[in-house]
Amino acid sequence: MSEQKISEAIGPVPAAPVHRDPLALIVRFQSLIGLVLVAIGGVIFSPRRHGEILFLDPDNIANIVRAVSETGIIAIGMTFVIITAGIDLSVGAVLGLSSVVTATMMISGGFGLIPTILAVLIMGIVFGTIQGTISSRFRLEPFIVTLAGLQAARGLALVVSGNQYINISYGDGPGLAPPVFAILGERLFNNTVPVATIVFIVFAAIATIVLNTTRFGRYVFAVGGNERAARISGVPVSMVKVSVYAITGFAAALAGIVHAGQFNFGSANDGMGYELTAIAAVVIGGTSLFGGSGSMVGTVAGTIMLGALANILQLNNITPALQLLATAAIIVLAAVLQSLVRRREGLGR
Amino acid sequence: MKTIQRGSWRLSLQAGLLAGTCMCMAGVAQAADPMVKACAKDGQFIIGFSQANNAEPYRQHVNDELTAAAKEVPGFTLQIADGAGNVNTQTSQVDNFITQKVDLLLISPFEAAPLTPAVKRAMDAGIPVIELDRKTVGDPGKDYTAFIGGDNYKIALEAGKYTAKTLLPEGGEAAVLEGLPSSTPAVERLNGFKDGVKENAKIQVVAEQAADWVPDKAQTAFSAMLQAHPDIKVLYASNDMMAAGALLAAKGAGKQVKIIGTDGLPGPAGGIEAVAKGDWAATFTYPTGAKEAIEMSKKILLDCASSVEPVVTVETTAITAENAKQLMGK
After folding, report:
1. Substitution target from B100, B182, B183 for chain A, most A beta carbons within 10 A
2. Do A128 and A246 touch, CB atoms closer than 8 A?
3. pLDDT tens-digit map of A226-253
4. Which CATH superfamily does the domain covering B152-286 fall into?
5. How large is the ipTM?
6. Lowest CB count within 10 Å: A63, A114, B123, B283, which one?
7. What does the alpha-carbon distance between residue A4 and residue B255 come to, in Å, rounded to a whole number?
8. Which GO terms describe its molecular function (chain B) (predicted)?
9. B89 to chain A: nearest residue by CA?
10. Distance CA A323, CA A74 (A)
């Protein structure tokens, strides 16, 4: 699909192999396949009680999708960036900054729900835009710029919070947050579907539509596939590059709001290391770090797969060390598969 | 103790809710239903322990002591889940324990407010929750079964008073290495020490820096402090690891600084040995409460207790040159 989109945007490119490589097909759906495999493993190895498979217990499924919702939201933003062959290391720190600002605005600032959420989301977009602009204007590696962004966001979070953590208490009046904000930590539909998960899935759906059906989505693939060709054929490359960092900034801010609502808390330490979990989910989802190809559905599947894996290992009381090793193996496997496909299609690198 | 099980499920629930109130009336408490219906002298029980972060040596020490204490009880199986310093991970692990229907939940929440909803879900599912070392929001005996642990503020306050009276009676400059900024224990220990040294007006706290609980950052931070304030006489480190780092900095600068650690960990890298060797002036133990937690679990699961003490505060021990050698063997 991605090749098709590039060609739409930038005119003829060397024709893709007519017969799709079966390996390419596997890579395209690798995270879905992985998710199915993990789910099957989950069912087989799940502890049982009174014949009931604990892994499939609706409560347990809800636990899995709730636990991954924040990193999932971030991973969705990250997918845009990685398709353009970029990277954003600042997202975990921006999550922390956003949770602190959310808590501070509502508790000490006395702001209402809507102004707080809008301000935090705009802050995330601005933060990402600044990073994207610096990177694109000065032709700096996004790795460096967002590494600096990570430090800046954590520093700002400490300044805003005054080195303290901010508890969010609910009620009417000064120093209290609107009670409706607590809904982010609850479950809807007869206490089954976590609200955080709903935010994740809705955001994923919107992102999928944007990436796969809009002109902007095609530009994103084009910039990552071949930047020069994209530029020559009139793709506003700089605008696209800045926009994808604005999207990750927005995603991280959204995750920060969800975090503050889920945990009634804002701390500068929130979201530490989330950037790496998100990158892992994106890579497992089949998006190439070289840019130009990727899939949103893959990212969602990769995110849930990592959560399901952690869940099944804990249900069986298996040491977290094994979980890290398993994740490592999956990342390497995903990357190796991608590299094999690239080589077969003669894309090299 | 033999308990006759009678009355409806609803009654036992009410009794459970009333358990806190019954504490003061021993006679009434005996007649009440047990906290866990499936309790039995010779039963098999799974205890889930949700640990905040295995990467901290103190928490590893807690895990070791808990594992050892649980092994003594034939019917107990202890499962430890590592929250890895992340409230989201820890929440999902508590949820998993609820799914597994563990018989009792032990938890050291990484942060208070974020883990409160998860603890409530466990209590709602009828699982007794004993909080170890750190609390969630709410009242022990009501929002969770019990709290066992030390008091960070009080321990640091003791260290401050010890500095004011014994280490620096004539006054002088003191410095503080703080834990991870904005984490609860870091804030409590910082405030405790600063309040403690106020007893002696001639002591000034000239520098306080965060070193995030780790020795390398402590070494860097304390080296810089000694550059800026060469007359620092006492350093209070909010944990043993940072005290170890500070010692390296003091040695590097060729300064004699009286170092106080916190936690009093055993073993060759721990604070007790450092004090015994004369490297540090003192360390203040932060008791794990592991034995107390398993004792309480036995009361609930094996002895069918209808109520337990809602707060068990384990006192700190000051480890100084006088008692360090003697405590080392233990």
Report:
1. B182
2. yes
3. 888 999 998 999 999 999 999 999 999 9
4. Response regulator (3.40.50.2300)
5. 0.72
6. A114
7. 70
8. carbohydrate binding
9. A67
10. 21
